[in-house]
Amino acid sequence: MPNSAASTLLHLITTTTPLLLLLLLLLTTRVSATDHIVGANQGWNPGINYTLWSNNQTFYVGDLISFRYQKTQYNVFEVNETGYDNCTIEGAVGNWSSGKDFIPLNKAKRYYFICGTGGCFNGMKVSVIVHPLPSPPKPAIAASHASTKSAAAAAAAARGIYSMLVLMGLFPFIWIGL
């Protein structure tokens, strides 16, 4: 049966193509938004240096900032810079009190959050700078003397090699049906 190997290979290719495309799509998509839990394992409580915490984070548009606290004692208000500096909630643009608040950071700007039950005076305030999403990486530019045609051919060959390496890495899993 000389055609059995070819038949098996053809069957393998036709039945696993959708799976391969899905895996390649997953490998090339952006990782989901980051959820920054204020204070990490210490949560939203008095006496914690939230400036130090926020300086060790990088926030991007689309990320979340989460506050975890006892809802009977504390809350969260989004305020302007004056409200942040003076621990006042006048003119607040948002408030939360669930004890597990997930706040989307939808704009590239500086956000100011305080506790409105008096905790702000004991350090329960945090300011974060949200950055725009980084631009996708640009393809490598060929040497200035190379023609556009040869640069395009080189890029296509590189993509082909990369695709082949990905497929070779996935082949054992596909072969055994995982």
From TrEMBL:
Protein name, per record: Early nodulin-like protein 19
Chain coiled-coil ranges: none
Presence of keyword Cell membrane: no
Membrane-crossing segments per the record: 151-176
Listed GO MF terms: electron transfer activity
Keyword rRNA processing: no
Gene name linked to the record: LOC113738842
Domain Phytocyanin: 34-132
